[in-house]
Amino acid sequence: TKSLAAADLTAEPLAMPLYAEQNAVTQARISIVRFGECVMRQKPESALEFVVANAGSTREDNALASLAPVLGTCVDQGNTIQVTRSMLEAALAEAIYRSVKAKEAAQ
Questions:
Q1: What pLDDT does residue 86 have?
Q2: What is the mean pLDDT of residues 2-28?
């Protein structure tokens, strides 16, 4: 199996999920998706490292420490978000997945 690397991610912005109904829940979901994409774009190697690291490991701690400086810059202006490690992992994993799939589709 091939290892995933930052070079496997697309440079193009990701399409946001489409929802039939726009409400506070869907807007919050889109904000988290944007947040994950922003963090991934600014620190792709650290984002990948955080996602593949074992929970609670030194590897995960080091990746999070590397990501910490960009987390606040990735929150949509006027919004605040509170994320747990597992929420951050999920947001980054989705952004990485969508980015890889977008790059594959463009080839």
A1: 94
A2: 68
User: Phi/psi class of residue 78: alpha, beta or left (left: φ > 0; alpha: ψ in -120 to 50)?
Assistant: left
Question: Do 5 and 51 meet the contact criterion of CB atoms below 8 Å apart?
Answer: no
CA distance 12 to 60: 27
**Considering the entire predicted model, what is its pTM?**
0.82
Q: What is the rounded average pLDDT of the residues 35-47?
A: 93
Angle between helices 44-52 and 24-42 (to 10 degrees): 110
- What are phi and psi for residue 56, nearest 5 degrees? 80, 5
Q: What is the pLDDT of residues 28-37, one digit of tens each?
A: 777 888 899 9
* Sequential DSSP letters for the chain: -PPP-GGGS-SSPPPPPP-SS-SHHHHHHHHHHHHHHHHHHHSHHHHHHHHHSPTTSHHHHHHHHHHHHHHGGGSPTT------HHHHHHHHHHHHHHHHHHHHHH-
